[in-house]
Amino acid sequence: MATSHAVRPLSGPAFATLLLIALMMGANHVAARFAFDHGVSVSTAVAFRSGVTALVVLAILRLSGAALHVPAGQRRTLWLIGLLVAVQSLCLYSAVARLPVALALLAFNSYPLWTALWARALYGERPDPLVLRVMPVMLLGLAMALDVAGATSGLGAVEHWGRIGAGVAFALVAAATFGCALVLTQHGTAGLDGRLRTACTMGIVAALALVGVGFQGGLQLPQATVGWWGLAGLTVLYGTAFTIMFTVLPRLGVVGNSAIMNVEPIFALVLAWLLLGQTIALMQVAGGLIVVGAVMWLGLRRR
Question: Does residue 9 register a pLDDT over 80?
Fold first, then answer.
């Protein structure tokens, strides 16, 4: 008979580290908006970010003496995961380029629902009843955050969705592909060192992004100093967050508590307001808090 277990209590340093990662991930997307607003293409940003992250994680693996072998049976799955994460990365940054950063991340935060759907479709797993109960709450919060009727904006539904529709679509595709990648990771790469999986995945993403760069006629680099700061910021913040995730967190015993990092949209909301001047209505903030709260509750509940 299976035994239930609770998520381990977090120490102060572990909790602070999780919040730091969420802050850096939120800041990464704000930095990306600066880059996009000053001439950087989405594929260029993904190539820089993923390539540097892959090299950093690979260096950590080499320094630690870890094996760099991927079992033959997992290589095809790893390539598929890399393709999905590449699509997710391109779509999420495309959403960030078109929407207020916090709204793009909130729409992306629907990925737990996509994860449950993919697990059912690909492996016949029955969704957790709790996920099914929380799903309407998350969707209500997302509808409030996106102002689906256009009431807050005063534009009406048609004109409002004419402005945000493409960005929301990109964010939802990012959520769907990320959910599928999570399911494939769980079922198709069991036992593989998480650092090696990350290095391989980021390397594949960088290679695919460079292919996209080639089709666009080459790298589209910043046209102003602030754009260079944005490109450097998104690269360093993303790479640092991933490095901490795979080197520090395991030592702190954070496994099972990573849902705390879903406060990322809240950090992004504050940073985008301070640095980009982006604001959203109070009702949208309330909807965002509902989405974030629901995702965190799903992740932190007793299992």
Answer: no
Length of the chain: 303
Query: Tens digit of pLDDT for each residue in 96-126?
Result: 999 999 999 999 988 888 988 999 999 888 8
CB within 8 Å of 179: residues ≥ 6 apart: 111, 112, 113, 114, 115, 116, 117, 118
Kindly give the interhelix angle for 72-98 and 12-36, rounded to the nearest 10 degrees: 60
> Does 269 map to a domain?
yes
Q: How far apart are CA 239 and CA 262, in angstroms?
A: 18
Residue 111, domain extent: 12-300
Cβ atoms of residues 258 and 71 within 8 Å:
no
For tokens 């001439």, what's the residue?
39
pLDDT(232) > 70: yes
Assess if residue 3 is contained within a domain. no
CB 38 within 8 A of CB 230: yes
Residue 7 lies in a domain: no
CB atoms within 10 A of CB 128: 15
Kindly state whether residue 2 falls inside one of the protein's structural domains: no
Residue 60, number of CB atoms within 10 A of its CB: 16
